Amino acid sequence: GCAFTWSSYSVLSRYFGTIPTQAVGGFCAATAVLAWLAHFLFESFVVPDGTEWLAVLMLGLGPVGGAFFTWDVGMKRGNIKLLGTLAYAAPLLSTLLLIALGLASATWSVVVACVLIVCGALLSSGLLTRPWRPIPPLPLDPD
After folding, report:
1. Could you read off the pLDDT of 77-98 as tens digits, one per residue?
2. CA nearest 81: which of 10, 22, 17, 3?
3. Which among 30, 64, 95, 137 is placed 20 to 30 Å from 57, CA to CA?
4. pLDDT digits (tens, 9 = 90+) for 43-56
């Protein structure tokens, strides 16, 4: 469901390019209300403590909130193909960072996942589907 929702949002944000990026804040607020409602209806109710509320606030104001705003700007004004291809780097880099910090292990399933991420990036970039052309040789220096 998330992949469909996010890809639909990405395409529609370009289509409705006249809607200001500041509207993302409203969409995030509506999503938060719906998430709280789903939590209340379908899960055991939990009230976060002060530290957890601070973490939620900092994530919303920092990396997660910033990512939503910059993604919207990129979708409306940027190179969508390049942005989509570069988006493959996020899970790859975060996984490699976790391994480098000793917080995750480099198992075979992680290696396979990383290879699949790179293949997905290559496929989305068109490098795997373009006709292959040899690189012309460099001219030889007469000296």
Report:
1. 888 878 877 888 888 899 999 9
2. 10
3. 95
4. 998 889 999 999 99
